[in-house]
Specification:
Number of domains: 3
Distance between the termini: 41 Å
Helix content: 40-55%
Shape: elongated
Radius of gyration: 27 Å
Order of helices and strands: HHHEEHEHEHEEHEHEHEEEH
Length: about 290
């Protein structure tokens, strides 16, 4: 059985017409028919019923098609693996990232792209739940986000660093000299938080609930840059991991006292997916061993 025969079979199965399939494959109909017949002879069972000019999969053909598609996919992965053995002169990498990890990503991306300018990098920002969904459907190669909840068995989780949770305040506020703050003190402040779906919001909500506290959440928004701008006005406060706020944001970050008020940054990838060479090289720029 040859890979070529499997491709021919799958195209015939897709179009259910030998003439059309042969045209798409740029071969003659007689060549296609001959190759399919050889495949059937080797398997010892018909894969198609021939009804005039039409063809229909037999029961055996339907069963075989499942494995044929997997076989073709595995062979394509093999070709990708061999291609990636070259020096990353070409390639593509799609990285999912939450806003709180942007500075980590930017530092690594600048160094990686300088070394491998031929590799195209696509950056997808989203909430943790959105990125996990995209990762499970192979829409991104890996995600940079903060740990949340129980770990799923289909993913690899690599810890990168930890970051304290902080109250974020305007420099106009009276918190300039405050070294830390409690959750109870925060309940007295007007809060603007990310919307549900952000791991930060889930973390913060659970922290207040576990301490039987009710925060004053006045605004929820699904855009972190806008959230930071609102906080800068001095009318609201927010709660974010310290690494989410940079010096350029011109805001105060005050560590929150309490048990487990620390977030762990994670690199998450799909456990059984083929790992591109570009991925493993990029990991090294994130100091992943």
């Amino acid at each position: 059985m040859e890979l070529r025969q499997i491709r021919y079979f799958l195209k015939a199965k897709e179009l259910l017409n030998f003439t059309e399939a042969a045209g798409h494959l740029y071969i003659s109909q007689s060549t296609l028919s001959q190759q399919i017949k050889q495949l059937e002879d080797e398997l010892g069972i018909p894969l198609f019923n021939r009804i005039g000019k039409r063809i229909v999969l037999t029961e055996a053909g339907a069963v075989f098609s499942e494995y044929a598609e997997k076989s073709l996919l595995k062979s394509q992965e093999g070709f990708l693996a061999l291609r990636d053995l070259k020096e990353l002169k070409k390639g593509e990498l799609t990285i999912g990232v939450t806003y709180g990890m942007r500075s980590t990503l930017i530092e690594a991306l600048i160094r990686f792209s300088k070394q491998y300018p031929g590799v195209r990098v696509n950056i997808v920002f989203g909430t943790t739940s959105e990125l996990i969904e995209k990762l499970s459907h192979l829409e991104i190669d890996f995600a940079l986000t903060f740990a949340t909840g129980a770990q799923q068995k289909i993913f690899n989780y690599i810890p990168l660093f930890t970051s304290p949770m902080t109250l974020v305040a305007s420099k106009k506020s009276d918190f300039k000299d405050k070294e830390s703050i409690t959750l109870k003190e925060i309940t007295e402040l007007p809060l603007a938080l990310p919307t549900k779906g952000y791991s930060t919001t889930k973390f913060v909500t659970e922290a207040f609930e576990s301490n039987n506290l009710s925060p004053q959440i006045l605004i929820e928004i699904n855009d972190i840059p806008t959230l930071l701008e609102l906080t800068k006005s001095g009318n609201w406060f927010t709660i974010l991991a310290q690494t989410t706020v940079t010096e350029k944001d011109d805001l105060l970050t005050i560590p929150i006292k309490g048990k487990n008020m620390i977030r762990t940054a994670m690199l998450i990838s799909l456990k059984d997916a083929y790992e591109k060479k570009a991925m493993t090289v990029f990991y090294s720029y994130l100091n992943v061993k």
